[in-house]
Write a structure and sequence with these properties.
Number of helices: 4
Largest sheet: none
Mean pLDDT: 85
Radius of gyration: 18 Å
Distance between the termini: 21 Å
Oligomer: single chain
Number of strands: 0
Pfam families: DUF7875
Protein name: 40S ribosomal protein S23-1
Structural class: mainly alpha
Helix content: 55-70%
Organism: Theobroma cacao (Cacao)
Number of domains: 1
Low-confidence stretches: none
InterPro entries: DUF7875
Domain DUF7875: 1-94
Order of helices and strands: HHHH
Length: 96
């Protein structure tokens, strides 16, 4: 699913054997960006609603931010990371 080959950014070489697999890289990136997305959208909620903010509303904004930012960052890692190119995914799976 990586777009690097279609865009001409891939040289087709295999990654080193000790490189992180694509699934772990996506999971770690999504986990980190979950916290950042929640905090970022919570700030946006505070700016949007000001003194009318309620706890359920701020939690709803934070949850939406966490889901949207983490899923977007995981998708971007999947599309543009060299570890997620088909030959590297196949080489990692074959080593097991």
């Amino acid at each position: 699913m990586a777009l690097r080959r279609l865009l001409g950014w891939s040289d087709g070489e295999l990654m080193r054997s000790d490189a992180k697999p694509c699934s772990r890289l996506m999971r770690q990136t999504a986990g980190i960006f979950t916290v950042g997305g929640a905090l970022g959208f919570w700030v946006l909620c505070r700016l949007q609603h000001g003194p009318r903010i309620t706890v359920p509303r701020s939690l709803r904004w934070a949850a939406c931010g966490a889901v949207s930012v983490s899923s977007t960052s995981a998708l971007l890692v999947r599309l543009f990371s060299p570890e997620c190119e088909p030959q590297n995914v196949a080489a990692y799976d074959m080593g097991k």
